[in-house]
Amino acid sequence: QFDSITNNESIFFYVNLCVPDTDNCYRFELSFSNKSDIEIKDITSDLDSDEELFLNKRVFVSDPIKRDTTINHYHISYIIQDNDDIITTSIVYGKGLDTAYYAGREVILDIKYPNDSILHKNINGEFFNSFLSKEEIKKYSICYFQFDSITNNESIFFNVNLCMPDTDVCYRFELSFSNKGDIEIKDITPDLDSEEDM
Questions:
Q1: pLDDT tens figures, 32-85
Q2: What is the pTM of this model?
Q3: pLDDT at 78
Q4: pLDDT tens track for 46-57
Q5: Which of 49, 121, 122 is nearest to 86 (CA)?
Q6: Neighbours of 19 (CB within 10 A)
Q7: Which residues 6+ apart lie within 8 Å of 132 measured at CB?
């Protein structure tokens, strides 16, 4: 895989050399100069655990989603995109269990009024650490983020779902941002007992 070109015009690539159908791999960095010189560097031991997962496992990724709107002189834009987090889940495969890997999701939110920035925020699973434990957060990712409304006092509301990938197991939150940049998070996850009584 192509990686980069440096200022001195060396061209870098990554190469994996693996035992077929296993996670047993070596990782190399190849560089080619503009004079056709070649350098090979073994970087297998330089990988952290997340990089190894990306290299040696199939990680399910999603396309970015962009939204942009202007309401009551507020310009609201956000991008929902994959980040470097990897969420590991178990899935039923035939008569047994298999492990699936999903890229985590984050939201890059910008709010301006009318042209002055009042908020620039990166929202990911850690954003909700007052509602979920560290162990729980590792299992969840943002799967839904949607602008909801602007109130008379100019608070801006969004709805967020934090879910285990590819499941209906979710927490639901309401986020509100004031025109001064203050943030409030409210857990609006339906109570399972009340749902069963309906």
A1: 887 778 889 888 765 555 555 554 567 888 899 999 999 888 899 999 999 989
A2: 0.67
A3: 96
A4: 555 555 555 456
A5: 49
A6: 9
A7: 125, 140, 162, 171
What was the pLDDT predicted at 198?
Answer: 43
Q: Give Rg (Cα) of the chain.
A: 22
3-state class of 158 per DSSP?
strand
The residues of the chain scoring below 70 in pLDDT are 1, 7-8, 21-23, 45-57, 91-97, 192-198
How far apart, in whole angstroms, are the C-alpha atoms of residue 177 and residue 109? 11
Residue 159 is which amino acid? N
Q: What DSSP line would sit under 96-148, residue for residue?
A: EEEEEEEEEEEEEEEEESSSSEEEEEEE-GGGGTTTS-HHHHTT-EEEEEEEE
What distance in Å separates the CA atoms of residue 62 and residue 81, rounded to the nearest whole number?
7
Phi and psi for 132 in degrees, rounded to 5?
-125, 145
Query: Could you tell me how far CA 131 lies from the centroid of its own chain?
Result: 19
195, with CB counted inside 10 A (0-12, 13-18, 19+), is exposed
Say which amino acid occupies 72: N
Distance CA 107, CA 167 (A): 20
